Amino acid sequence: MPPSVEDRRSSFGHCLRQWRDRRGLSQLDLAVISSVSQRHISFLESGRANPSRDMILELATVLDIPLREQNVMLTAAGFAPIYSESDLHDPQVEPVRKALDFILHKQEPYPAVVIDRYWNLLQSNSAATHFMNLLIEPQALQKFDRVNLMSLMFDPQGLRPFVANWQEVAGHLIRRVHREAVVEGQSEKSIALLNELLAYPDAPQSWRDLQWEWHTPLLTVNFVKGDRCFNFFSTIATLGTPYDITLQEVRVECLFPADEVTEENIRKLPNF
């Protein structure tokens, strides 16, 4: 049985209230930055009023709600989703795929990867592949059905043993995953990833508390393999003004050497 008008109102109102709370806005704050009155926002959240599709999109825009979650809000209010979710191999996104290839190639000889919203590895350059194989035996990677960078970082059979400043890096990454889960919408996948990382027996209790403050201006990840050190910082790039869910969630993470020793060691790796 399809949801009744009352159920749809209540469901949409719940979504709207959640996103307003996540952004730290009162109903008055939201009214000020949108064309919707405070009274009407109150009615929407309580289920006493129905939103139009244009109103939903306006509120979603000012609340900076991800496209995937905008589709959820539209559906909750009884409208059809309007944002598609393409595959990166689809012909219509070929220009984007070429741009990603270009970025990965130009990042050589430093590692770069393309990941999705849940940190699944979609693509990497040769430098990232060679560096990964330097640290982890190829057969060890076979245990992962699909390479997830966060899982790989935390798994004792993954990258974790090679991270010299593990506690600092792990705490930062946990806060990052936790914050993204809250800011971008607490989907089942994002919560499952967070719970997976927190399930390791030596995860301190402090990791379970959402923290918004960073104590260092720039985090470096310090890898050690034998007598070689690789200290990296990273940049993350996203696509501007996408209207497709997949494209909005694609990220390119590039690693850069934090010191001259790392730069020299990277250039000594095979094929460089």
From TrEMBL:
Molecular function via GO: DNA binding
Record SUPFAM superfamilies: lambda repressor-like DNA-binding domains
Listed Pfam families: HTH_3, MLTR_LBD
Highest rank taxon of the organism: Bacteria
Ranges of residues in domain HTH cro/C1-type: 16-70
InterPro entries: Cro/C1-type_HTH (IPR001387), Lambda_DNA-bd_dom_sf (IPR010982), MLTR_LBD (IPR041413)
Name listed for the protein in its UniProt record: Transcriptional regulator
Species in which this protein is naturally found: Gloeocapsopsis dulcis AAB1 = 1H9
